[in-house]
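Q: Okay, next protein. This is Sodium:proton antiporter from Robertmurraya siralis. I've checked the sequence twice, so it should be correct. Can you predict the 3D structure?
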Amino acid sequence: MKAILKNYRFPIILLSSVIIGSILGINMGAQAEVIKPLGDIFLNLMFTLVVPLVFFATTSAIANMGSGQRFKKVMSSTFIVFLGTGLIAALVMVGAVKMFPGATDMNVELTKPESIETISAGEQLVGIFTTDNFIQLFSREHMLALIFFSLLLGFAITKVGEKAKPLAIFMNAGTIVLTKMVNLVMYYAPIGLGAYFAYLVGTFGTNLLETYMKTAILYFIVAAVFFVVAYTSYAFLSGGKKGIKLFWSHMLSPTVTSLATCSSMASLPVNLEATEKMRIPKDIRETVIPLGASMHKDGSVLGVILKIAVLFSVFDMDFSGFGTIGLAMLMAVLGGTVMGAIPSGGMIAEMLIISLYGFPMEALPIIAAISTIIDAPATALNVTGDNASAMLVSRRVEGKDWIEKVEEV
């Protein structure tokens, strides 16, 4: 019990600060605006860190990858599986918010972002992934372009090899330093989020809290269904009925550990042990599981779609159409995959959402609270999804009879 409380300590503190702030907001009413600057300080600090952190962490993650023929096959299969399962998770939550739109309705009046002028799909693509000025990369308005540039830089470092090693070391050091800065700023998060929620509830009333209850229920139901149906399907695709038995026979420890620790990284040793018992080839499990712990997060993908839908409701925007849904799914996969490589990536992904859509920074506490509420089930999906992915990668690399091969060894 003490271990569980220790692992959940900070989420509990954050949730408590939100509750205390909400109570203050109810009692203070419109006067709660007087403590809003305390929340603004937190938002400003986080937004100044997001750009350099994304640049250093994304570049470092790619630059630290290895090479070799089988390794390349394992890596390519891993990224195909990560991308495919991420898109499926995003599509599932899109369907859920469409079926139950009331779960994301939130009557909060914030300044609506300016309408984006109508441009062609090609121009939109160019504008999203590139910019014509190097300096513009390092602004919140061009986050996806920065990620794309960082990926290219990381791959270039890998290709150059030994001569680029000092740059790889520098990028890694930058990631460590900026991560520590984020950790330091997060100590102020309970005050900042508490103050902002006092302002939100004081200004917009208790209907805000009712919406969070509906949103949480929707996520918990979707997560439970996804956990059973999606992962059983992946196991079947990997190895038929044997695959299903192999997967579910070794899921208890990773699931319980992830729920108890609320951390993908803390669950990593248990996951490696589980995949060994599942007879996943050594080089595959030692590649997929560590990468998955930081870069493959089905639970986070579900959460990103939910947060985007909530913000579209807040700003009275239409969450429909191929372009809108497609961009949201891309954002979800980036939020759950690329941003997952960054410690405190949940908060960074939320800032990426806000930057990409042009929402005001006041929207951050609204979706940050959702992250805290869904943290445990999201982590469980993030962790167990890696094991299902390892099975799919084994199927791609070793062939359809991979289970029989390892049974003979």
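A: Here is a summary of the prediction. The chain has one domain: 13-408. The two ends are 41 Å apart (CA to CA).
Q: Noted. On to the next one.
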